[in-house]
């Protein structure tokens, strides 16, 4: 049986996940098939390859239903409120962190040929005025500690429009601002313009 595995190492704490059963990758997903993973692991030292292989685990095809109390109020009422509530230095540090992540190696795509600067990320954020490229939610909050599903559409992240594993470049023309939810779930039913679930907010 074929599987598709999640092995994007954008965040070092993320575990590899087996995502889909079947030979077809979801459009926009940076998750290799089992055969692609094994081909990559064959290039690594045996102990490292075995450690990665042992951590792979099943992951859902779709997110769990949204349950529980409503999400907390947004931390920022608008893009203007975000600008008023943060300093230029705060925003640049945030963008510098995202540039560092984007410039880092990943298991299936290695070290990118091009490196982006914090100012490249800042321009993407400012051009979008903090709104997700896919659903349009204002996404200018940082990822909270612990579960973030209830406010996933408010968490801002840098996203490669064409994922690196599938040939996308690490250059400004391939970068968009996205909410964490749409970046994580490349499904048409999740990347809905105007979606108000998962904390979606449209001031």
Overview of this protein structure:
The chain is α+β, with helices and mostly antiparallel strands and 203 residues long. The chain folds into two domains: 3-58, no CATH class; 79-199, no CATH class. It has six helices and five strands. The strands form two sheets. A three-stranded mixed beta sheet has the order 1-2-3. Helix 4 (88-103) crosses helix 5 (118-128). The longest helix is centred in the middle third of the chain and has 16 residues, at 88-103. It starts with a strand and ends in a 19-residue tail after the last helix. The model is unreliable at 1-25 (pLDDT under 50).
Features:
disordered N terminus, 6 helices, alpha+beta, 203 residues, three-stranded mixed beta sheet, globular, 10% strand
Low-confidence stretches: 1-25
| Estimated structural class | alpha+beta
Q: What is the end-to-end distance?
A: 46 Å
Q: What is the H/E order?
A: EEHHEHHHEEH
Could you report the average pLDDT, rounded to the nearest whole number?
84
Helix content: 25-40%
Indicate the radius of gyration in whole angstroms.
17 Å
- Range of strand content: 5-15%
Shape: globular
Number of helices: 6
Number of β-strand runs: 5
Biggest β-sheet strands, sense, barrel: 3 strands, mixed
Task: Briefly summarize what is shown.
By secondary structure, this protein is of the alpha+beta class. The chain has six helices and five strands, in the order ββααβαααββα.
């Amino acid at each position: 049986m074929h599987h598709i595995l999640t092995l994007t190492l954008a965040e070092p704490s993320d575990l590899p996940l087996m995502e889909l059963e079947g030979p077809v990758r979801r459009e926009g997903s940076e998750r290799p098939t089992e055969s692609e993973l094994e081909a990559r692991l064959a290039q690594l030292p045996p102990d490292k390859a075995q450690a990665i292989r042992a951590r792979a685990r099943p992951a859902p095809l779709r997110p769990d239903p949204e349950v529980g109390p409503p999400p907390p109020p947004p931390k920022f009422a608008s893009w203007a409120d975000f600008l008023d509530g943060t300093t230029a230095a705060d925003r640049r540090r945030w963008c510098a962190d995202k540039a560092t992540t984007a410039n880092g190696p990943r298991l299936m795509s290695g070290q990118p040929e091009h490196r982006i600067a914090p100012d490249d990320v800042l321009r993407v954020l400012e051009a979008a005025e903090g709104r997700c490229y896919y659903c349009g939610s204002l996404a200018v909050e940082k990822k909270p500690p612990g579960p973030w599903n209830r406010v996933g559409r408010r968490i801002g992240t840098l996203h490669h429009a064409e994922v690196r594993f599938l040939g996308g470049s690490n250059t400004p023309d391939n970068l968009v601002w996205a909410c964490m939810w749409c970046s994580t779930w490349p499904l048409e039913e999740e990347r809905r313009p105007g979606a108000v679930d998962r904390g979606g907010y449209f001031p």
